[in-house]
Amino acid sequence: MARGDAPQDSYHLVGISFFILGLGTLLPWNFFITAIPYFQGRLAVVNSTAGTLSTNHTGPTDTFNFNNWVTLLSQLPLLLFTLLNSFLYQCIPETVRILGSLLGILLLFALTAALVKVDMNPGPFFSITMASVWFINSFCAVLQGSLFGQLGTMPSTYSTLFLSGQGLAGIFAALAMLMSMASGVDAQTSALGYFVTPCVGILMSVVCYLSLPHLEFARYYLAKKPSRSPVHELETKAELLQSDEKNGIPNSPQTATLTLDLDPEKEPELEPELDEPQKPEKPSVFIVFQKIWLTALCLVLVFTVTLSVFPAITAMVTSSTSPGKWSQFFNPICCFLLFNIMDWLGRSLTSYFLWPDEDSRLLPLLVCLRFLFVPLFMLCHVPERARLPILFPQDAYFITFMLLFAVSNGYLVSLTMCLAPRQVLPHEREVAGALMTFFLALGLSCGASLSFLFKALL
């Protein structure tokens, strides 16, 4: 809800800008994992000039464990910069953090696109790509945290738009992959067009950010931005998302944020109370952790299961049908597009009901049951295996598993984010948000690390 004396957001330009900025924060992660077949093609053939954006019937050999490394090196920067946020926010101005991160991502994605045309041996290509993945996701972590800091001064509807952009990034990447594959051009041109797409998206994000100071509505709120401590800026992420998750707005698996149960209609009334002398004393981190440890553990386990097989194992599953169009489009559609759509749907379900509640012991049981997806996916039609048999060769098995896997991931992530604030006192919610932020990043990193083990067991 906007303040009474605030100007209007003419033509919704500020809202559109934050939507595009949200999209830009998660485009890199989604474009890299969706293009796994292209990278595997480049790494499987010596001196390949372009690889391919599609897999053949048997699939390329993942000699470098690209699936695992791209997942791990995407999530470790998130955990690292979650811990380093205090230092960064003290030493680097906000404009430098945001604009510098966007330009760094743009430069590295331009390098990735240029490498499509470069004839290079698999070893150097792998090293350059992994370095790009690390630095791109480091920039993304800084960018995301800084933008959430800015959103803390805006009406809550703008955090909704930002999160909507983040939630659609995965779907956008999967659709871009399908369009490039269906374009009918040669593999090299198709790959180049695919990687130029996020460059355009990041460039639009730069333009949107630079336009904010020239929009009266944005100037009004950003000019009134209070002095924020490093921890407060981390905790701002927690304050922004509770109402958004309840409204069905998705949050990406990579977004290290937690929601707090704040009424957006009352948000402006809360500001004068922040400086009142009767404010409760600073809550103990240990006491808050004692209250939410089970919910935090559930969040860690949800992401551990998800990142341990997606995309490291799921991207290796191929169609059991004879080579053809369906075989070519099977993984982009049934793995990446289906996961992102159903994950979004799962997160939206919490706007209608929250079950089980915070006092129920069913939540840990449901979270632990998701570990069944690990053997189920590993026993699907993955041609590259040395130990385990294929028990679920038909495509229908993989599609069914992916539907349940994605919906459960979205729902349980959103559920834990909604339940954690209900387990603490109102003045303890900020600390709970900061703790859950760390545990979310920890779950992502644990899952990415565990993917190496599951890949070796195939």
Outline the structure in words.
The protein has a single domain, classed as MFS general substrate transporter like domains (Growth Hormone, Chain: A, Up-down Bundle), CATH 1.20.1250. The chain is built from 17 helices and no strands. The chain is mainly alpha-helical. 67% of the residues lie in helices and 0% in strands. 52% of the residues are buried. The protein has helices spanning 13-34, 36-44, 66-83, 85-91, 94-115, 122-151, 156-182, 187-211, 216-223, 230-246, 267-270, 285-309, 325-348, 362-369, 373-378, 395-419, 429-457. The termini are far apart.
How many domain regions?
Answer: 1
Second-tier CATH architecture? Up-down Bundle
Q: Identify low-pLDDT runs.
A: 46-52, 54-60, 226-277
Supply Rg: 22 Å
Determine the N-to-C terminus distance: 52 Å
Structural class based on helices, strands and sheet pairing: mainly alpha
Mean pLDDT: 81
What would you give as the CATH superfamily? MFS general substrate transporter like domains
- Principal-axes shape call: globular
* Strands, total number: 0
What's the CATH class label?
Mainly Alpha
Largest sheet: none
User: Count of DSSP helices?
Assistant: 17
Query: Helix and strand succession?
Result: HHHHHHHHHHHHHHHHH
Helix content: 55-70%
CATH fold node name: Growth Hormone, Chain: A
